[in-house]
Amino acid sequence: MVEEARLGDTEHGLVPETDGWFVVNAQEARWFDDDGLGFYTPFEGENRFPRVGINLAILEPGQPNCMYHREDEQEDFLVLSGNCLLLVEGEERGLRAWDFVHCPAWTEHVFVGTGDGPCAILMIGTRTPDAGVVYPVSDLAKRHGAGVERETDSPDEAYRPYPNRRAPVGYRDGWLPER
Fold first, then answer.
1. Taking a C-beta distance cutoff of 8 angstroms, is the pair 137, 150 a contact?
2. Using an 8 Å Cβ cutoff, are 148 and 68 in contact?
3. 51-99: per-residue pLDDT in tens?
4. To which H or E segment does residue 111 belong?
5. Are strands 31-33 and 7-10 parallel, antiparallel or unpaired?
6. Which residues of 84-117 are buried (b: 16+ CB within 10 A; e: fewer)?
7. Are 31 and 40 in contact (CB under 8 A)?
């Protein structure tokens, strides 16, 4: 029998502290401020899920969710509310609530919030221990504040302009539609 995980109550929200199954409401979970790259809750606590990553991201208008990149893992995205721009393989695509995006391994991509309010995106990706990532130079991504000046496979180098990433915060009213 699989035990229920214990949820710890931090000053910024609930976090699973032990292994096992659990239920947590996104509005009660711990969130992170990614220093200009939106806000997100990874749901998984300190111990990453070993095979799949699940994040709920909130992007304000003009905010990218990360640096334009490609990786050797599949990722899938579902826009839950609001609007955003998908930069994918050098193209722009406007997205709205309930648009689904599938990115096979090595698909270059990033999301940028648009519209007049927050955009909520459910982000799911597979994981392997030796996952690789590349941050290519893209003029399109640079125009949206999501591009690197020099191609790199180093997340530390790609995110150097964002030294205060992963600052814990609590949920803010208005990020998600009312229940």
1. yes
2. yes
3. 888 999 999 999 999 999 999 999 999 999 999 999 999 999 999 999 9
4. strand 109-114
5. unpaired
6. bbbbbeeeeeebeeebebebeeeebbbbbbbeee
7. yes
